[in-house]
Amino acid sequence: VPEVTFTLDPAQTTFSKGDNLELKCSGQGNPDPTLTLTTKETIENLTNVQTTELTHTLTLDCMDTGVYVCSGQNSQGRNRTEISISVRCE
Fold it and tell me: Which residue intervals define the domain Ig-like in the entry (predicted)?
């Protein structure tokens, strides 16, 4: 089963509208996993690629509040990690 690591840059979970956020999803396994980065609410694929690391950058808006999921899958199984963020809109 692949190992999956999910990090945010900057490493915080509360942001303001207009902030930039980099989501980093990485995985290790044999064979290399296919990594998928989605939002939990819409199950919309932000990106999906067979690699050991993928990065997605967002300029945050109010609607970006939610749970983001990094998952890795290979012939040995599937693993996932979730991070919840909130965006302050004033």
Answer: 2-86
